[in-house]
Amino acid sequence: MIYDIEYETMPREALESIQLRRLQATVSRAYATVPYYRKKFEGAGLKPGDITSLNDLQQLPFTAKQDLRDNYPFGMFAVPMDNVVRIHASSGTTGKPTVVGYTSRDINTWAELMARALAAGGATRGDIIHNAFGYGLFTGGLGVHYGAEKLGASVIPISGGNTKRQVLIMKDFGPTILTSTPSYALHLAEAAEEMGVSFKDLNFRFGIFGAEPWSENMRREIEEKLNITAVDIYGLSEVIGPGVSIECHEAKSGMHIPEDHFIAEIIDPATKEVLPYGETGELVITSITKEAFPVIRYRTRDITSLNAEPCVCGRTMIRMNKISGRTDDMLIIRGVNVFPSQIESVLMEIEGVEPHYQLEVDRKDNLDTLTVRVEVSQGVFSDEVKELQRFGGTIAKEIKELLGISAIVKLAEPKSIARSEGKASRVIDNRNI
Ligand code: DLL
Which atom of ligand 1 is nearest to the CA of 232? Predict the structure, then answer.
């Protein structure tokens, strides 16, 4: 179902004229109210009036996470605190969190976008949404919550954690849509199995998963284990939270970006040059309707490409492909660029490997080593040592063949790698570089 038929299927020409008007308004307001933007524009010799076409966006300076940190906590807000009704923050593994604010109109915009997203992911008014994204400073829980209410669905605000209780509620309340991180969805499936509950007997139809990277192979694994159709949802707090893009369940091939609210560009992260559709690079987003926290050419660090082909679902909004990694989580192992998602893809192809793994990188005698700890099924684990060694060898060979790097593969017992209730942490880099 298309939630906002007028905007989501708008002809490109009409859309572009709305984008230009909104971009001009955003740039003027940012210039007038946020000292950071005024300084940046002045540094580039630009005035808001210089933006006369969508192409002029390319003249504007980029905004990076460091800029938000430098203005911590509220320095990038474009409205007085009187008008801010909500504050969220991204956890941030290093340094200070990134703080974002919303006016009451922003909350409404976000709810609309999330209603669109949930509908694209298969939700209707009749659905019961089991929302296992964390509620709190993280945008996942409340983002889905407000969208579900706006859509008119029933939402169970279960949040993350207390997994056994979640299984009970899934059994008793009969939710039809699951929203969570993909890793937590698998954890829920495992917990259900332990409690003798089969997802086949539950009512779930769709799962809407995001907030962390997951491969196509991981999708297949989840769809099979949970007996659902799984779609990918993307977003980041700096831009609004979840709802920056969503796959439609009809195509499950690229996430539609609500371009009446966000303008997407792909740049080469090294040269910062804007790349044409289809080419892979760093996603850059400009918000064109947000009031409290507008972002102009925000460098997401997420790696993807854009696809302007028409979609079977009827939406005219451009799609971005699945995130293949982040510019800052790319591991360089003995000179080879490796994304954790590539290793995940290799692992998930192998029968007997479970979707739980961790990568550890060390440096010994100036040489990088990559250790892949991966869980295997009970059947494989109870094999003889020799068999296990052979199995580990096969995995190492596949990794070497596809990625060109040698890895030390350690097979782990089922359920021995720590499960997370939110975003899974899959990489431990001990190199201190
Ligand atoms: O993760 C917002 C969100 C909540 C998205 C719920 C989807 C569902 P942050 O905590 O600010 O916000 O983290 C944003 O997470 O830059 C990506 O690197 C990663 N990420 C988010 N969604 C996806 C996805 C939320 N579908 C950062 N695939 C982003 C891959 C994702 N990575």
Answer: 26
